[in-house]
């Protein structure tokens, strides 16, 4: 199957969990090397199998771009996502719920730990300033 056929193939109606994320790669464009974000939305189908519905290129990550990706997935037949495990990108939960209003949005463990550590540091700094 050609890449365009794979990228545009029909999708299963339900995905139990989706992990939308991106990786940044260095890509040669013309005579220079630039950063390109490769957006991925791997997931687990209702049979418990891993799936990758597609890959998308962009110069940076944003909720608006994810809204476009999620709309494409919906148009290709993915009618329901049960859980979306996301990073802390501002507006990401709103983008997901705009396309999949019943989806439960969960912050991934790495970002939960990172946010907890940042909160703990702020708390300790506040305690130190009150008790030098």
From TrEMBL:
The keyword DNA-binding applies. Keywords: DNA recombination, DNA-binding, Transposable element, Transposition. It comes from the Bacteria. Coiled coil: none annotated. One of its GO terms (biological process) is DNA transposition. One of its GO terms (molecular function) is transposase activity. InterPro entries: Transposase_mutator. Required for the transposition of the insertion element. PANTHER family: MUTATOR FAMILY TRANSPOSASE, TRANSPOSASE FOR INSERTION SEQUENCE ELEMENT IS1081. Belongs to the transposase mutator family. This is Mutator family transposase. It comes from Erwinia tracheiphila.
